[in-house]
Structure to design on (914 residues):
């Protein structure tokens, strides 16, 4: 292992140059004009891996190509097998004018590399690839077989991945999937994420009069759909910050004393957090800490409201309709489909007869939970500690990564979420960056991880 | 009078041709490109009036010209003086594709003339002008002195009119103002409108986090401004359809038994009205009829709602802000400024500390009320009955005509609202039309009106 770690340390400047090269591809999956860049980026990754002595393939799909990279398999020897998942596609860089330097011209400032895709996700899976390189180039035997699955549609919904996983199910059967695409609370706290929230999206529209009506001539003699919408939505959250839909919390388990204690270890300062969000005062479900509220408790959020006149000045109408976009963040024990049914039933029940309610169910993603105390989690925590030199934390994340449920369903494998992103890395925002200390520590963590995971097998 | 009425009947086809000529001007005050048409339209009206033997002037203002037309004054003889108010500017015709024929190419179909401005308001004041023509051309002495004030900014807020009224206060001092710019419930019910609602506009914005936040990562640990807005607005109207702001109804007088009885005479069929509005069920202040709700009771209306993401699909954010446009329709006894103060105070009181409330007060217009039983009203009702051959009704209108309060303040005169518009005349909408029977009856009504008003003087 010393040789591996030494190699990683020695070659860090070159790794950064190579990562820069990778980051130059504007592999924006949401924008059709970048189809060529997507293809070129996937080819580059495969070529780069082959040059390291790895077996790489670019698989065409109905959407963007998926790159697989396999470590050399020792004949007749059964090693544990792990899939490393990542994505080479990136978020759109717009608005360009908010970037200090162009998003696809990587810039190094201090210990950060600025570029679209640096943290999300090129830098993070590239750290794993460099760990593998270190094993190969130092002639150190990898204690595990690894298959990287690096896709190109993560930012637009991962549509091609599940069919790909099903098609290659045999080759991809594994002991666990390792994903570095989540975050850590700060540089001092390397983290294993053991739970993710799910999501259920819904759009509702209240139809009132058949056209916008003059509010002077008719106002007062019919319901106002915008008012009806407000009164309907107002009833979805009670004053304690809980979702006021009957049955919504059925199945939600309270956090164990162990979990609450672990979550309480996460760095948190209310005043700083309030300032960071930019809100006059924090608010959340009564009886829960902010960390719990945002990662371990379900919520309802209004993502958008639309009704009537939105231009300057006033327009004196009773609007014909009013609509809202809602998402519910869900926690383990809640099923998105069932939640959407419950909410729709509830809304239909409380909707007044003076407007017509139209509900469109949107996408859903199941919540995710693995044991934070199981042997794989323990192995991961040891790897984190060895790589970062600090006691790792275990945490839940409030966001959703629907693909981890597909890994469980199709490959039968749990996912170890070992994220390297920092809260100020500007994921999905202008001036995205990746911390170069985390890049280096990420490679060390990966090198240790295969050892630790092999131990317990 | 017989000669006058005979002349009106004989010359009706020509009147319609002349009205068509008047309607050909696209005198759209809201659109700068029509400035030339505005000027040409004002000139046409003055020239047309001069050709009838009237004294007409086009007065330049800071905005669009105001046309005055005076009947010849008899020397040394004091007659009662009335101002006839109207406007030659029209609403924008857009969307063009919904017009069956071009908005400025008048088309006659059955007993209707279709064109932008036909009812609102060219046709209505032209009816009065044709009555004056009948007096002049038949050599019949007008029992009153008349001054027409036809302005060109009614559809954009009448800004130039009050300074004009103040400047010409002496010449315009009068016994009453006559305005045909309101409606009648149907062709069988000629109407005198004796009250108008006032209006108070307000915009509010709730500020939450300093930028849109990822609803997965942060959702649950801060208030959602769209939800806070809904909960705030929901509290503005109670389940009985009353505005739930303390002090809002102070000063509002209940309708007298006489008024309720008169309003109950107006034609109304709940099923037809519901169908006309296109709503699943009617709604309004409990204890009031629909006619009362929409004309004689104050209301709160949400005219627009805006927050977060409004495009297709979903965007999982906690929006940074949420805003609403509100208008309150007011009734006699309520002051717009005071109402805005009350509402702002109320909102500040109930707004949660988790968001920051920003209130922008908008325009206000006072409610209007004249006695429906006074001698001028009685004279107007007799004129309506004589012209239409039917028993007229007295009514309140729910809309606001702020200028009538200026007439009272500046000229010291009440306004007689003798509208000729029918509910299906499509005012402000595509395919605006004017009923030609009402055009003819309007001229007869005008001819009778000066006789009836002179009687009581």
């Amino acid at each position: 292992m010393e040789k591996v770690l030494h190699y990683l340390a020695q070659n860090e400047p070159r790794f950064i140059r190579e990562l820069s090269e990778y980051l130059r591809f504007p592999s924006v999956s949401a924008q059709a004009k970048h189809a060529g860049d997507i293809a070129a980026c996937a080819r580059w990754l495969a070529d780069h891996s082959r040059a390291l002595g790895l077996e790489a393939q670019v698989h065409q799909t109905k959407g963007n190509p998926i790159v697989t990279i396999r470590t050399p398999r020792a004949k007749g020897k059964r090693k544990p097998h792990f899939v490393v998942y990542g994505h080479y596609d990136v978020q759109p860089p717009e608005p360009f004018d908010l970037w200090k330097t162009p998003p696809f011209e990587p810039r190094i400032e201090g210990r950060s590399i600025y570029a679209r895709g640096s943290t999300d996700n090129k830098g993070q899976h590239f750290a794993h690839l460099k760990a593998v390189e270190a094993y190969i180039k130092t002639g150190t035997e990898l204690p595990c077989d690894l298959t990287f699955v690096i896709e190109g549609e993560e930012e637009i919904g991962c549509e091609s991945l599940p069919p790909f996983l099903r098609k290659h199910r045999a080759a991809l059967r594994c002991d666990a999937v390792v994903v570095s695409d989540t975050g850590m609370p700060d540089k001092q706290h390397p983290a294993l994420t053991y739970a993710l929230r799910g999501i259920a999206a819904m759009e509702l529209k209240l139809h009132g009069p058949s056209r916008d009506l003059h509010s002077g001539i008719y106002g007062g003699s019919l319901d106002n759909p915008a008012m009806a919408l407000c009164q309907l939505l107002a009833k979805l959250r009670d004053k304690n910050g809980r979702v006021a839909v009957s049955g919504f919390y059925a199945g939600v388990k309270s956090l164990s004393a162990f979990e609450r204690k672990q979550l309480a270890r996460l760095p948190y300062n209310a005043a700083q957090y309030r300032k960071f969000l930019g809100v006059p005062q924090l608010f959340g479900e009564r009886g829960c800490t902010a960390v719990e509220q945002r990662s371990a408790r379900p919520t309802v959020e209004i993502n958008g409201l639309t009704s009537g006149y939105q231009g300057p000045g006033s327009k004196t109408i009773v609007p014909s309709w009013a609509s809202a976009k809602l998402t519910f963040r869900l926690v383990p024990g809640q099923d998105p489909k069932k939640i959407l049914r419950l909410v729709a039933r509830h809304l239909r029940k409380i909707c007044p007869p003076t407007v017509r309610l139209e509900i469109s169910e949107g996408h859903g993603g199941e919540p995710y939970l693995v044991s934070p105390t199981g042997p794989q989690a323990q192995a991961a925590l040891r790897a984190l500690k060895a790589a970062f030199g600090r006691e790792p934390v275990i945490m839940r994340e409030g966001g959703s990564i629907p693909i981890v449920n597909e890994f469980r369903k199709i490959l039968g494998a749990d996912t170890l979420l070992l994220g390297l992103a920092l809260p100020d890395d500007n994921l999905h925002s202008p001036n995205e960056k990746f911390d170069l200390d985390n890049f280096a520590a990420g490679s060390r963590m990966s090198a240790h991880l295969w050892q630790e995971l092999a131990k317990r097998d």
Q: What stands out?
A: Chain B has a mean pLDDT of 96. DSSP finds 14 helices and 18 strands in chain B. Chain B touches chain A through 83 residues (CB under 8 Å).
